[in-house]
Amino acid sequence: MASSNAGLLDTLKVSFFLAFRSIKRTNIGTTILTVSIISFVLVNLIFLPSVVNGLQESIEEESRDNQYGNILIEPKENNLYINDVSNIQKNINSLSGVIGTAPRYATGTTFSHEDEFLGGTLYSMVPSDEMLVSKIHQGIISGEHLSDSDRGEILLGRDLAGEKDVEEEQPSLKGAEVGDIVTVTFSNGIIKDYRVKGIFGVSKMGTDGLAFISEKEMESVLGIDDKASVILVKLSNIGTEDEFRKKFIGLGISEDMKTWQEKIGGVIGSITGTFNLLTMITTVVSLIIAVVIILVIVYINTVHNQRQIGILKAIGIGQNVIIFSYIFQALFYCVAGIFFGSFLLWFLAYLFTQNPIAFPMGEVSPIITFSLIAKSSISLLIISIIGGFLPSWQTARQSILKSIWG
Amino acid sequence: MIKVKDLKKIYDMGTLKVKALDGVSMDIKKGEFVALMGFSGSGKSTFLHQVGLLDAPTSGSIIIDNVDVLELSEKQKTLFRLNKLGYVFQEYAILGELTALENVYLPLLMMGKSKEECIASAKEVLEKVGLGDRTEHFQKELSGGQQQRVAIARALVNKPKILFADEPTANLDSTSSIQILELFQELNKKYGQTIVMVTHEDFHKKYVDRVIYLKDGKVIKSRK
């Protein structure tokens, strides 16, 4: 009786030996072509999702940094404003882990500059508070940021200020500049001229279309005191929002509180939903291309080596050894493709970080995460196992005589 | 060593049934060098394929080294071929991607031997077949006779119970043919290697112990 001395380890050892020799002595041009194709497939698999990641990250950052903070406090249902704002701020600011709070008061107005008239919302801010919470002060592109005591001065977003003689998608003041006068008509009928103190540009996703005056100015014009439409709360750590919301409730704050994730959930959902559909289509197409390429390469290889496979079987090399050797070869091409593809992706990521892609909502750089590379690499590895297995299994299961003599 | 009884191989060609082997029976003793001869289509290669476990007969029995080999599963047959049989084909059936040395030590690697053992044994056998200085050469760098000697070395490296050779000199010139036959004879006389060889060359008879003649799938004569 034949000794059963061909264990799994020996099988893998011989398979690896055959695969290694085959790769080593194969045509270098074929190897380069195959590895290049797999590299491009990997880039195709990862690049679009990485842009979606970048887009999502931009939206999230913008919402946290400029629009909502980590937690946005809004008036209770049926209330127009939050009252007793300074007390709420004092309570929240006393908690460790809170970086700052910034109240904003919003009122409907009409802006006019030279011949341009524009309806919009004017916000008040406490500049010293705002600097702890938002990044508007870091985005001043001309002039200066507001100060707490400013009166008669206005801070305009880049999109609201607009540009002279340029056709823009959104209505603007057509080139308001620092030092210009913008006339604001308030809802209570008061009309007041404001000197443009600064223009900021932080994001095309809404913030750059806003205008701010100081809280003291707003209070004097509208005759209000210690009121806000919203209070933005900035926390030290992302992910602690729910924990802090509970703490705020514990402090007796009964206003509506929403985390930034809740505020942007719908927006992100619809944008990423659309992109995910596109990504899924390109992923499926890329994987089909990859499996077909590997199948064709291994199939040609096995057909070319059919006689060799017959000889191997005749001298006692098991069918599994032969199949594994082709799977190893396919895996080699795949791993080399992943390696060079990752290098290509790193280069593309660098290139697009230096020159971000322009989207209607702003500039976006691709974000390539480890999980994205891991998922795509695993998909390619599975594909290469299938691509290596099917043709070699089909050829190796033929009878020895048919393999050798056809 | 080999006991074959009433071996039949019938090819079903639709309405036509071709009897390639029609009840062949024979015994081959340990250490015997046997030649199978006959005209083309006599069934000699078909017989070799059946006893060499490269194909399955329609009926009959084959006992090799006291094992009823037709009862073995495909996996067991593969192991049996690896451990107990050696093959030399008509064409130079060596692997082009491997050197002469790698071609020879491949069966040993499959048997689980260490690489050092494999290399040592393969070099020893290559020396024995006169290719000690060609170990690192590839197929394309070897002559036909040298390639066939690599195939013989590979067939011998696992110290097989039986060496099967299917017209091993058919593609060789007369000088190389004689070298191969003398090598077979030496292996048989010096090491007691059992050899079953298919041939159609009359002058090969002088190298073997016994000639078995086949005709129309039957043994018609067995002569020492």
Q: Quick recap of the structure?
A:
The complex is a heterodimer of chains A (406) and B (224). Chain A has 406 residues and is α+β, with helices and mostly antiparallel strands.
Give a structural overview.
The complex is a heterodimer of chains A (about 400) and B (about 220). Chain A has about 400 residues and is an alpha+beta fold. Chain A folds into two domains: about 10-60 and about 265-405, no CATH class; about 75-255, no CATH class. Chain A is built from twelve helices and twelve strands. Chain A has a six-stranded mixed beta barrel. The model of chain A has no long low-confidence stretch (mean pLDDT about 90). Chain B has a domain at about 1-60 and about 70-95 and about 160-225: P-loop containing nucleotide triphosphate hydrolases (Rossmann fold). Chain B is about 35% helix and about 30% strand. Chain B has six helices and ten strands. In chain B, α4 crosses α5 (about 145-155) and α5 runs parallel beside α6. Chain B is globular and about 50 Å long. Chain B starts with a strand and ends with a strand. The mean pLDDT of chain B is about 90. The interface of A and B includes residues 1, 21, 308, 317 and 399 of A.
DSSP strand count of chain A: 12
Low-confidence stretches of chain B: none
Total domain count of chain A = 2
Q: How much of the sequence of chain A is in beta strands? A: 15-25%
| N-to-C SSE string of chain A, H for helix and E for strand | HHEHEEHEEHEEEHEHEHHHEEHH
Looking at the chains present, what oligomeric state does this protein adopt? heterodimer
At the first level of CATH, the class of the domain at 2-62 and 69-94 and 160-223 in chain B is Alpha Beta
Given as residue ranges, the uncertain stretches of chain A (5+ residues, pLDDT < 50) are none
- Widest beta sheet: strand line-up of chain B: 6-7-8-3-9-10
Assign an overall shape of chain B: globular
The total of beta strands of chain B comes to: 10
The helix content of chain B, as a percent range, equals 25-40%
Radius of gyration of chain A: 32 Å
Biggest pleated sheet of chain A: 6 strands, mixed, barrel
The fraction of residues assigned to DSSP E strands of chain B is 25-35%
- How does the overall form of chain A come out from the CA principal axes? elongated
Task: Please tell me the overall pLDDT of chain A.
Answer: 89
